[in-house]
Amino acid sequence: MSDSPIILGYDPETLRERIDADAAASRLEEIERFRSLAALNEQVALLRMLGRLDEAFEKAQAALRQSRFTGSREDSLAARVRRAQVEQYQGKLDTALNELTSCVEEAVAHEWGELAGFSLQHRGKVLAELDRLDEALEDFERALKYRESDGIPADATNSTKFAIRAVRAKLEGTSTEEIDEPITTIDN
Fold first, then answer.
1. Of 106, 151, 163, 177, which has the highest C-beta tally within 10 A?
2. Concatenated DSSP letters for 41-85?
3. Residue 18 forms beta bridges with which residues?
4. In angstroms, rounded to a whole number, what is the distance separating the alpha carbons of residues 2 and 89?
């Protein structure tokens, strides 16, 4: 397993990951033969970040099916969030937004704080892409509260703080170029 970081930071305009494509491809090659839910979820993320969106969607569908048969409801919800991320990258913003809204509602209703933060983070990214910046900021701020109260690792909360700073800069009409970028894990 390579020690090279895959995610190098985030683009302050799109909020998408800036990656080391070689490290991502190497990691994908290491895990592509595995079929566990964790491996499928990681494959979805790697394929999405590498721009291999049709393959990412197929893996996301497989992960969702597997989570429904063998996983918990929380696993299924997380798989739905990952599938919605792929749909966002495919340009299916309305579909992604609807799915993520459903995920947020389910996570909040069941008091799954970590999943609520995860769902809100990614719905915020879709809202930002739709240029609904006030709503995106609200989602990122709510995501941060869930993530901090649930004791989520700093790498995940840092990516949320970065998104908040980037969206606030856009709302204020200031440059996003000087925003410090966090180094984060693959499953931000």
1. 163
2. HHHHHHHHHTT-HHHHHHHHHHHHHHHHHHS-HHHHHHHHHHHHH
3. 9
4. 26
